[in-house]
Design a protein that fits this description.
alpha/beta, Rossmann fold, 4-stranded antiparallel beta sheet, 10 helices, binds adenosine-5'-triphosphate, binds magnesium ion
Length: 246
């Protein structure tokens, strides 16, 4: 299976008076993991929302496998979204549904699989994230790290070709962060999907990236392989990757 390539050109977006994105361009290659970093409030989540068509840019273009997202009809957008998995910044599970119902949510809405087939997929995806046998539990009965893994299982339920992770390890302890980072890598490796990981966390940046892109003041100020970014001369990028306030 081949991941989706995303080509972002000259994206701009203001909220009221505030210009958040001011000409963002970024090539996200198919089948690789691109980590997007940048200070809080620089527009990382905003870019993810635009890639899935939940928010329109003021100008600029986003092409997924050559197809312009900003010009898709609602129907095309619906079909396109079925090939994308999203893990939101808050896990965003449905509290009133069991783990199993959460994971099979998209399957129930968009497919005509039998309950038995859905249960099979739920168990398979829960096994991938190390939560086999938990389908009858409710989110409130789970730790934050387990909830995050349920959100992963839900995101991969339909075998997406593009997976967007918004701050997947923020708020987790170092051991659970490592588990989640390993999971991101394993899912990418086994599915061939393209991953976009938005994160602040240094361990996550270096453990999950094949490429790193840094956003600052509304633009992408640097992009490259992890070792290239580590050795950059740009002080903003170096300070960020060294965890120094600049
Ligand atoms: N729907 C909205 N209406 C008004 N302002 C918004 C909206 N969405 C985002 N913003 C503003 O745009 C800026 C960028 O927000 P965004 O959530 O994309 O940042 P971020 O880089 O993901 O930050 P963080 O690292 O804290 O999650 C923020 O100043 C935010 O307040
Ligand atoms: Mg965010």
């Amino acid at each position: 299976m081949k991941g989706i390539a995303v080509s972002i050109r000259d994206l701009s977006k203001s909220f009221g008076e505030k210009k958040v994105l001011n000409g963002v361009s970024l090539e996200i290659p198919a089948g690789q993991s691109t980590v997007v970093i940048g200070p809080s409030g620089c527009g990382k989540s905003t870019i993810l929302r635009m890639i899935v068509g939940l928010l329109n840019p003021d100008s600029g273009s986003i092409a997924c496998d050559g197809k312009e997202v900003t010009r898709m009809s609602p129907r095309e957008l619906g079909e396109f979204r079925q090939r994308i998995g999203i893990v939101f910044q808050s896990s965003a599970l449905f509290d009133s549904m069991t783990v199993g119902e959460n994971v099979s949510f998209a399957l129930s809405r968009h497919t005509r699989l039998s309950q038995r087939e859905k249960n099979g997929i739920v168990e398979e995806k829960l096994r991938v994230v190390g939560l086999e046998g938990s389908s009858q539990l409710y989110p409130a009965e789970l730790s934050g790290g387990m909830q995050k893994r349920v959100a992963f299982a839900r995101a991969i339920a339909r075998d997406p070709l593009l997976i967007l992770y918004d701050e997947p390890t923020t708020g987790l302890d170092p051991i659970m962060s490592t588990v989640i980072e390993d999971l991101i890598n394993a899912i990418g490796r086994e599915s061939g999907a393209t991953s976009v990981v938005v994160t602040h966390q240094l361990s996550t940046i270096f453990r999950t990236s094949q490429r790193i892109a840094m956003l600052s003041r509304g633009q992408v100020i640097g992009v490259g392989k992890p070792e290239e970014m580590k050795n950059t001369k740009d002080p903003l990028i170096r300070d960020f990757l060294d965890g120094r306030p600049s």
